[in-house]
Amino acid sequence: MVANPNFPENLSIKPNTTLRDASHEGDSFGAAAQEGAIQKYGIAGRVWEAAYNMLAYFGESISAPEQLDPPLLEHRNDDDDRRSPIIFLELGSGTGIVASYLANHVSSGDRDTVIATDLPEVCPLLESNLRASCGRDRPLHIRPLSWGDHKHALNIHTELIEQWDRPQPWKLKIICSDLVYFPQLLGPLLRSLIHLTSPPFVSSEADYENIDIVISYKIRSLPKETPFWTAFGLWFSFAPVLVRSKASETAPASWTRFCPGQQDDDMFVFVASRRPGSLNWTVPPMDQDLMSGVGAKGSQSRKGDDTFETLLMMGLDSGDLAMF
């Protein structure tokens, strides 16, 4: 792990001024607030672009879940008798804009809970922003979770998940918004995702059906970022979220990549789950080995998965995406 991942050498970033929802202007997530947060918290103080795709996915899952494959929620919030309780656990929450939306618009009263996490030194930013943007009655918790830190993950399970008194079966949605960027952080990020989908978070592979990882991702440098997906795909199956287009007089409805902005945007939303059998694989202690595929598929050889590269070659828009 780099010494201070939020303040890399020659850091020069400005607030994101392309907010798709004008209601965020002037609040904890507007340009002025980001300016001050960047000065104090570096990268964590900026709202990054892929967050807006994540928010759009959440919004569409509430308003028209039948148009998405898969939607975030199995049933609408107004059908609580059918929907399982959900723990939304976000990694690298940063400013808290995604956690705020989850707490205010997606989670259902006392039925669900939201856990926002980041480095210990970033948690004060989360505390400040979420206190300002969420009501006190919102089921919201803030905890430190440094990527790769197993103790932090175990503390979250002990302090929050073990104590959660909702009826079984409940579901765990792990939320990752614009986290795939620095090569030095990719090994620790993958390690944390493995931690959060291993005991004590699951007791057997039967629990895998109740845990999803939702990742919003913006391509910035394929040579630097592809190694993450190559290693991630060994441990997790994943596919892009699809949206059903409306039928017209000249064309029937069809499924295409979910992309609320321009269709040529290099931003995607993936949904992932642990691969069968992976609970018995040995996780190597060194990040370099983990990123090289050591331990995956039960062998010590170096290997990789080609799901991401295949999706890129298919253009992520073909109807053949349904095969993933």
TrEMBL record:
InterPro entries: Methyltransf_16 (IPR019410), SAM-dependent_MTases_sf (IPR029063). GO terms for molecular function: S-adenosylmethionine-dependent methyltransferase activity. Gene3D superfamilies: Vaccinia Virus protein VP39. One of its GO terms (cellular component) is cytosol. SUPFAM superfamilies: S-adenosyl-L-methionine-dependent methyltransferases. Residues 7-20 have a biased composition (Polar residues). Residues 1-24 are annotated as: Disordered. It holds the Pfam family Methyltransf_16. It comes from the Eukaryota. This is S-adenosyl-L-methionine-dependent methyltransferase. It comes from Coniophora puteana (strain RWD-64-598) (Brown rot fungus).
